[in-house]
Amino acid sequence: MASTKGIYGLSGSGLDVESLVKVGMISQQKRYDRIYKKEVETEWRKEAYANVYDKVNTFRSRMSDYRLSSTTKPMTATSSNADAVTATANASAGLMAHSVEVTQAATNAYLMTTAGQKITHANTGSTGIQLRDIAFAGGTMPAGMAAGDTALSFKISNGTGSATVSFTAEEVFTKNLTLNDLAARINNARYTDSEGKKTSLDIRASYDSVSDGFSLFNGKTGDGNKINLSVETTASSAAHTTTLLNNLNMGVVAGGTVGPAVSLSTSGTTSSMETQGTNARVKIDGRDYNNLQDNTLTVNGVTYTFKKATGGTTAQINIAQDQDKAVENVKKFVEEYNALLDDLVKRYGENKYRDYGVLTKSQEEGMTKDQVDKWNEKAKSGLLFRDSYVRSIIGDLRDAVINRVQSAPGRYSTLSSIGITAKDQTGHLQLDEAKLKNAIAAEPDAVYRLISFDDENDDYGNNGVASRIYNRLNGRLKSLESHAGISADKTDMSELGRLIQNYEKQMSDFKKLMTSFEDSLYKKYNAMETAISRLSTQFNFFAAQ
User: Fold this and answer.
1) Which H/E stretch holds residue 532?
2) CA distance 19 to 54
3) What b/e string do you get for 341-378 counting C-beta neighbours within 10 Å, with b at 16 or more?
4) What is the rounded distance in angstroms from the CA atom of residue 33 to the CA atom of residue 467?
5) What is the residue extent of each domain of the chain?
6) Fewer CB near the terminus (10 Å): N or C of the chain?
7) d(CA 299, CA 283)
8) pTM for the complete prediction?
């Protein structure tokens, strides 16, 4: 404690108390420094593992891409009439030509202010876009209507659900809302689906100020998708709402042409206007496909996209393997594999400088920042030298690429058979592009089987290289996470994280013991100083007699 400390050695005893205390604390400081060095080295090791985890996890994610047939067996699909129909093909598609006839493409329900017309104004003296001027004669609020009353209201439906769009008198006549506000309200309209969720109608509305036109567009194609606008004729707002919708002068858009303006028609107590999309009707290789709700269809690994009718003619879709793309993707695989393997091999064999350890705080105080950084660079070297976790990952990578893929065709059952071989003892791969191209030409499935094939029973021998690596690394990453976590965070409950926290507690507890021990030394030497002072006084007394 501070009360035990003071100025010593003034009695003439000759004792250098401060020096004696410092000497007495040396052994304690050494014990503390040993714990401190262990804690710091463990932090460094955790950071090194975190870096390994990040690299391995990134590579594992890339293996997901290489497990896709589209990566190792990319296909091309070319159309003789790309304006009417296009296609893409996956690895299961046959290398052949397909005939396609499009009788009708699927269309959207679509209403638009008809060509040659503009929006009509009930307020004939206005040219603006305010709702009051379009729906109300003179643009004035009718007598008897209050600010909180509903001035305009209609239901809009997409064929599945419906929502109400309405405006109060205050919004129309005081806030002066416009056609843009009408469009926004339609766009934001929601209905409650069968699961009780609020769902968008997917009907898009817009006002075009250049043409002074309004449009409604259902985002989904097919005759099950509609645009229906309806007004309850018994409602107080019915007449003005009907005027609003009719004055938009919207016609049905079909085949790129806008038809004449249509008005709401009345049946019972409801006035409405409606249009719906159309289904696609096509013929592929002589087989009819009718009533398609949208313009895409996948048949035997080929996905067709229909744009418009072929006009009674037939489009040819030619399927071929994209060999250049396949080679490019295999090269990327080799490069990414080598980058990870080389990094791990370097860490595993990295030289450890045993003369360089963790610096204590007092040691750092006597050095420049640059000196500390250079020292620590040496001290951190070899942290994962001969590490078992790193060794296991390296072993998995090498094993995956060396062993035969049993599900692959006979003469192309190893990576070496398609031109991928190890050039040195580390397992670093090299690629013979000419040999790879020959293998693809001779056996189009060779690369796919060797790299991407994913056995339904997860049989390691049958799995392709990417699947093998992906599955093995999943387990290694779990073990690494348990041991060191996935980052430098020492609170993650990993083994090293808990060890670091334990070291920190040890240091905190030992700091308290050091303080107590230092206080006891000061007390001890204080007593000694007092005793010597008394002896000196007595000696001087007797000497003076």
Assistant:
1) helix 495-544
2) 50
3) bebbbebbebeeeeebebbbeeeeeeeeeeebeebbee
4) 48
5) 24-70+325-350+385-498, 75-106+280-321, 108-276
6) C
7) 12
8) 0.67
